[in-house]
Amino acid sequence: MALGKRKRERQLEAFVTASDLPQSPGHPFYTALNRLLAENDFDSFVEALCAPFYAGAMGRPSIPPGVFFRMTFVGYFEGLSSHRSIAWRCADSRSLAEFLGLGPADESPDHSSISKTHKRLPKEVFDEVFRFILRVAARKGLLWGENLGIDSTTIQANASMKSIVRKDSGKGWKDYTKKLAKKAGLDDPTDDELRQFDRNRPGKKVSNEDWENRNDLDARITRMKNGTTRMAYKAEHAVDLDSDLIVSATVHPGNAADTATVVDTAVDAAANLAEAGCENEVQAIIADKGYHSTKVVLQAAEFGMQAYIPERASPAQRRWVGKDPQAKRAVYAARRRTESEYGKLLSRTRSELVERSFAHVCDTGGARRTWLRGLESVTKRHLIVAAARNLSTIMRVICGIGSPRALQGLRALLQLAWTHLGQLVSALERLVMALARYGANRFTAIGG
User: Fold this and answer.
1) 257 and 152 in contact (C-beta within 8 Å)?
2) pLDDT tens digits, one per residue of 343-363
3) How many helices (H) and strands (E) does the chain have?
4) 332: which of 61, 133, 153, 215 lies 20 to 30 Å off by Cα?
C-alpha cells in the first residue's frame, strides 16, 4: 500500500454528482431513536401542532418542527447547553445530519433560526410535545404513575450579580455602597477601600425585595447548591418511582418556597398522566422534609393523594390547641406513613431516582446553566430536555442503550446486537406464521 499525502492546495470540482457525495453510515442510537419517533408519527404530530403559529404560504419556509425538536433532543444527548453549540454540533456531524433528515447538500439550521423558532412557539406546544413522549411510554407499557417523587434543584440564570440594581432608585451595587460609605465618613473611597468597607459592613444582605436584575426580571437571588449566591431559577421534577420517568418538569423563580410549589407540581403531573392515557391515578407524593407543612398535607389529601413527607426536627412538641382537628389527624397520619417500612422504602427510592433525573437533565444534559432569559423561555427549554431524558429511558428499555455515548463499550455493542437478533427472530416467526395461514387458507379454498 502506497503512502497517501495530504494535498496542501485543493482545486474545487466544478460539478459533483449526488452519488459522489459522502454518505454517513449513521449512528446506531440515533437510527433507533428515529425509528421510534417514526413508529409514533412524531413529525406529523408536531407539524399539525405548530401550523397555527406560521403563515400559510407567505415567506420562506421555516425549520421543520420535527427538525427543530430533534435538534433540542440532540442538546440533551450531546450535553450541549446553548442553541449555538447545538447548531455547530449538528453542522459538524454527518450522522446527526442524517438523524435530522438532512441530505448531503442540505445546510444545517443556524443557531439564530433555532432561537427564533424557540421564541415563536408558545409554552403550550412544548407541553404537548412533553406529553407526546409520555404517551409513547404509555404505549410501551412503561408508565405507571401511582407514586410520585418530587424534589427541586437550582438553575443558574443568564444574569450576573454584578448587574443587579436597587428597585427604588435604579442604582447599581457600587453606587449604593458608595452612598453607605459616605454616610460612614469615607469621602471618595478607592475601589479597594470600597470593597473592604462592603466586606466588613454590619447587616450586609442582598434581598430580592430590594434588588433586581434588569437583564432578566424573572431571575432571583438564590443560594446555590455549592454555597455561592447567584441569579437563578428553581426546577422541580415529579418522577414516577415505578418507571423512572419524569412526569412533570416545572420551573419557578429561584426564591420560591418548596411548600408553595409542590402541590402545583403534583397536580401538573396528574394532568400529564391523564393526557398520556395512564389508567392509574396518583396515590402518593414523596418528598423530603423541606416540603413539609400542614397546608401541603391537607392539600394533598383534598386531591386524593397521600403525603410521605418527613417532618423537620423540632425541640418542642407541636401544640394543637385551638387548631383544626382535621389538620392534626392529617399530620399524624402522614407521620405514621412516613415512619413505616413502606414509607422508608419510598423515601430511599425517591432519593435515588429524583436525584438521578437532575444529574441527567442538569449535569450531563447541559441544563444546569441556562443561556435564555425569562421564566417562560427557560421553562420551554427545560421541558424539552426532560422529554429527551424520558426518550432516553424508553430507549434503554427497548434496546438496552439510553444515550449515544453508551455505545463506546463492548458490552453495550453486544447487547445492541443481541437486541437486533431478537427482533430479527421475532420478524421471522411472524413471517412463518403468516405463510402458514396463507397456505392453510389456500388449501381450504382448493378443497372447497
Assistant:
1) no
2) 999 999 999 999 999 999 999
3) 15, 8
4) 153
